[in-house]
Amino acid sequence: MEIAKRVIEHRRWLHQHPELGFEEYETSDYIAEHLKKAGIPFKRLKTGILADLNVGASQTFALRADIDALPIQEVGGREYGSKNPGKMHACGHDAHAAMLLTAAEYMAQNAPKKNVRFIFQPAEEGRGGGEFMANNGAVDGVDMVFGIHVWAKTRSGVFEVKEGPLMASASEFEIDIHGKGGHAASPHLNVNPIAIGATLTNELYKIGMLYVDPIQNSLVNVTSFNSGNTFNVVPEDAKLLGTIRTFSDEAREVIFRKIKELESIVKALGGEMTADLKSVTYPVVNSKEAVVVAREALKRLEFETVEATPTMGGEDFSFYLKKVPGAFLFLGVRNEKKGITSPHHSPTFDVDEEVLEKGVRFFIELCN
Fold this sequence. Notes:
- By secondary structure, the chain is α/β, with parallel strands linked by helices.
- 32% of the residues lie in helices and 27% in strands.
C-alpha cells in the first residue's frame, strides 16, 4: 500500500463530506466500510467506532482520531471542497481520521508488535464525544493512548511534543441577571440588568488575576452579552456567556466558586442572578512514560521534533488521559509557499497534505 497516496485519498473524501457532532453517519459508514475490507473487527458507538487489531501481544496501545466537522461555510473554488453547505472540516479532523484509517489498513497487512485499538471519535467540538467514548470502554484494557492534532501554527512536518500540561480545560458559564424593567426616562424606578451585567463583566475579568495562583495560567473571557431590544425601554433580563480555561482542576474550581460569589454584588445592586457552570473538557496532561515512547518512535523515524508550547485551546482527548497514560502531539501543517497559513476554525483553513504520511508512519512505529 502506498501510504502517501492513500492518506490523501481518505482525507479528500472526508473533507468533501463533513458532518457535525453525533451526525457523522456517512463518515462513520465510510470508515466502517474500509475497516471491513481490511478485516479489522469493529463495533459502533453511536457514530463513533472502536476497532481492535489483536496480535496476541502483552501490550495494547490505543490510537485516537476525531471525525466531526464544524458549522462553517467553506471558501469556494477548492477541488476537494465541502459538498455539504454550511459544514466544513475547519480543524483538521478529516486529516486525523485519514491518518488513523490509513494506519489501520497498513497494520492489517503488516502485523504490528502490539495489540492496537483504533478509536474514531465523534463530536469533539464541544459536544461530549470524548467523554461518551471513554465512558463506553474506548480505553478499557489499554496500556497507553496516543493522538495527533494537525497544527496550523507549526511548520509542515514538524512534531511538537511535551510532557505534562499541553492544553487547557474548557468550561462554559451562563449567567442570567434579572432586574426590573420600565421606562428608560425613569432609571430610578428600574433595576437595569445591563448596568449590572457591565459590572459583572469587569468583575469576571478580575477573577483570574486576583484569585488564582499567578503561576497557574488561567483565562476567563466573556463572549456574549445580550439584553434589551429598543432604545427607550429598560429590559427585565440580561444574559452573559463565556469560557473558562485552566491547566488544573484546582484553578477551575476557584474560578467556579468566585463566579457564584458574584451573586452578592448583583443583590447589592437590586437584581437577581443565576449562574450555570459546566466543565466541557479536562486539561490535556501528557504522561511522562507515554511521551518517552512517542519521542523514541519519532527518533527512530528521524522526524523533526520541537518542544510543544502549551495552548489555552481545549481537547476532549483529556477524557482518555483521565483513565490511562497517554500523549497528545501536534503535527505542523503550515506551508507558506503553498499559501496554507489560515488558523483553525477559519473558512480558508487547509492542511499541507504531503505531511500526513508522517502521522501515519508515527502511528505505525508506535505499535512496533
